[in-house]
Amino acid sequence: MVRLIGLFLESTGFLALSWQTAVMIGVGLLLVYLGIARKYEPLLLVPIGFGAVLVNIPLAGMADPGGLLDYFYFGISAGIFPPLIFLGIGAMTDFGPLLAKPKTFLLGAAAQFGIFGTLLGARAMGFSFAEASSIAIIGGADGPTAIYLTSLLAEHLLGPIAVAAYSYMALVPIIQPPIIRLLTTRRERLVVMEDIKPVSQRVKILFPIATTLVATLAVPASTPLIGMLMLGNLFRESGVVERLSKTAQNELINIVTIFLGVGIGSRMSAAEFLTVSTIQIIALGLVAFAIGTAAGVLLGKLMYLFSGGKINPMIGAAGVSAVPMAARVVQKLGQQENPRNFLLMNAMGPNVAGAIGSAIAAGVLIALAG
Questions:
Q1: How far apart (Å, rounded) are the C-alpha atoms in residues 38 and 49?
Q2: DSSP assigned state of 342
Q3: Which residues contact 32 (CB under 8 A, 6 or more apart)?
Q4: What is the pLDDT of residue 139?
């Protein structure tokens, strides 16, 4: 009997628990706490955090070949889940504000400067081009894009990059306001922009088709993301496949989000996550996000000057993607300066442009990585 008890105790995870795995279980529980108590990207931080707990349970073998989490991760490694998330995002996105003011597309493009600026910094720190590209894409503030690119170029960095990307997306209301206030004057923040004019249904239908052809022919590597984003939007705007549109917006994206989140968590084992490079990645990700926000605001200031003061430069901060949170930050700041100022719809133009821009930037990096 004593021998059997001894054998049972040896089979438990308590005796095999190391301080490294204990720390990672703590990290997983912290992500769960932030998702539930603080409501920071709960749809992803809760499954990511719980997946991190499961993968660090000693002797469970959850992420081993053939283990449960290994199957969850398959959709990421095969490049399936992020494009499906983009399908759902496209079905939920109204590109009307962007089409009503096409020049705001430039603000979404400017915000991608954070990606390429951080790429150079990461290379200077000794990361390979593939690793640096994966780190730099955090600056696009688009979680699925970061996951897709990293799974192709630097799979071993998926855990810290995914956590950094979604953490900074969740912290948009904290990170962006100081940067916006630093780079703008009160006079600029007080600018009231004219309302968005309606766009015809025909234009809305043609937009996803034309964007797919132009963007994917120019950057073929962006086709999985751009193609699915625009297919979802075509479902939305065509008016003839309402069932498909609703499925993409609800059941499909919810199911994929569960698999995606838990699959990311499965890459957060102590051996993969507790490294010096993780700290560097988190720091570089913040730099990328800050540069992207600043670049968008600075171009917004330039457009403010050329428009004769008709464009509020704060909307440039929404170009980092993080749809629609970044646009809401701009709206909140505008209302703080002037309660009658409603910038949300004007900020949504560069916001959705940022989602397109980050996907194209990812395609460029994939092509350059060869």
A1: 14
A2: -
A3: 45, 46, 49, 50, 53
A4: 86
**What is the rounded distance in angstroms from the CA atom of residue 150 to the CA atom of residue 140?**
13
Chain-centre distance for alpha carbon 363: 15
Q: What is the pLDDT of residues 156-172, one digit of tens each?
A: 999 899 888 888 888 89
Instruction: Give the mean model confidence (pLDDT) for residues 186-210.
Output: 95
Contact 292, 114 (CB under 8 A): yes
Whether the predicted pLDDT of 207 surpasses 70:
yes
C-beta neighbour count of 202 within 10 angstroms: 9
Q: Are 343 and 334 in contact (CB under 8 A)?
A: yes
| pTM reported for the whole predicted model | 0.92
Nearby residues of 77 by Cβ (< 8 Å), 6 or more positions away: 151, 155
Q: Are 269 and 56 in contact (CB under 8 A)?
A: yes
The Cα–Cα gap between 216 and 224 comes to 9
Q: Which of 163, 154, 107, 156 lies closest to 292 in space, CA to CA?
A: 107
Q: How far apart are alpha carbons 301 and 202 in whole angstroms?
A: 33
pLDDT tens, residue by residue, 314-330: 999 999 888 888 999 99
User: Over the stretch 102-140, which tens digit does the pLDDT of each residue have?
Assistant: 999 999 999 888 898 889 999 999 999 999 999 999 988
Contact partners, residue 138, CB within 8 Å, separation at least 6: 118, 146, 161, 164, 165, 168, 281, 284, 285, 288, 289
- How many helices (H) and strands (E) the chain has is answered by 22, 0
The answer, yes or no, to whether the previous bond of 173 is cis (omega within 30 of 0) is no
Q: Which two tokens stand for residue 169?
A: 């997306």
Closest to 285 in 3D by CA, of 174, 71, 121, 129: 121
- pLDDT exceeds 80 at position 27: yes
pLDDT of the residue at 324:
85
DSSP run (H or E) holding 145: helix 143-153
Instruction: Say what percent of the chain tops pLDDT 90.
Output: 75
For residues 361, 364, 369, 370, the Cα torsion angle rounded to the nearest 10 degrees is: 150
φ, ψ dihedrals at 50, nearest 5°? -70, -35
